[in-house]
Design brief:
Layout lengths: L2 H12 L8 E4 L9 H13 L7 H7 L4 H12 L6 H18 L8 H10 L3 E5 L5 H10 L9 E2 L12 H10 L6 E5 L2 H9 L3 E5 L6 H5 L5 E3 L2 H12 L2
Parallel strand pairs: 1-2, 1-4, 2-3, 4-5, 5-6
Helix pairs in contact: 2-3, 2-5, 4-5, 6-11
Length: 241
């Protein structure tokens, strides 16, 4: 993979005259935390309680949606109707309770090294997550102290549409005070990739789960890497830009 060549492809597609990354916009689950296996189990079990089949691959494919949208998509596909507000609240609460009972919220290997290197280089860092679980978000301050605060976070509470709509990443650009060609999105989900690309941002996908590389590439990811370690190894090249 020739990173500089991928930048040229990005510039041709977007029409920007230059690429100078000043901000890095990180998804959370599957990027900063190795938490997706627990989310997958929690969603599949919560849906099974209401007679809806939702396998783990579907969880990975739908990662990034808000809880409300996830429930409605499943209900529309299988029950041919939208879920009521009460159903959405009960299913999401069930999912959250299951997740909390099984989750270990392990930091993604090399995530801290990546964040620390970017912070040392003076780059802006913004969290962009579809999650609204306060317990996991508060865990950020324990795992990655001095990196995140409400001012550099976009969560499900901040957006109307959520991923795959570009709204979360457009909001992240505003928080960082940069243009699309001055940022890089770090994602692991197809819908997150859609959102980053839709916002006109160079998007690196980390395939840290059970998806196929093409699931991410087909959504427009400019680069697909197998791990956070590979991103860490690529950082010197990125920071030279």
């Amino acid at each position: 993979m020739d990173f500089r060549q991928e930048i040229d492809v990005y510039l041709k597609k977007t029409g920007f005259g230059s690429f100078s990354p000043k901000a890095f916009l990180f998804d959370m689950d599957g990027v900063l935390y190795d938490s997706m296996p627990f989310h997958a189990k929690a969603w599949t079990e919560a849906f099974s309680h209401v007679g809806v089949l939702f396998d783990e691959y579907s969880v990975y494919k739908n990662e990034g949606r808000t809880g409300k949208t996830t429930v409605n998509e499943a209900f529309t596909a299988q029950l041919h109707r939208e879920a009521t507000d009460d159903e959405i609240q009960r299913i999401y609460a069930d999912k959250a309770a299951i997740f909390m009972s099984i989750s270990k919220t392990n930091p993604m290997p090399f995530a801290k090294e990546v964040l620390t290197a970017l912070q040392a280089a003076g780059k802006k860092i913004v969290l962009v997550t579809g999650s609204g679980q306060k317990s996991l978000i508060s865990k950020l301050n324990e795992t990655y102290p001095t990196i995140f605060s409400p001012e550099n976070m976009v969560t499900s509470f901040d957006v109307k549409y959520g991923k795959p709509n570009p709204e979360p990443y457009l909001m992240a650009l505003q928080k960082a005070g940069v243009q699309p060609n001055e940022a890089i999105v770090i994602e692991n989900a197809p819908l997150g990739v859609q959102a980053g690309v839709g916002a006109g941002i160079f998007t690196i996908a980390l395939n840290t789960g059970i998806l196929r590389d093409e699931d991410l590439a087909n959504e427009g990811a400019n680069v697909v890497l197998p791990s956070m370690k590979d991103l860490y190894n690529l950082l010197p090249t990125i920071l030279e830009l």
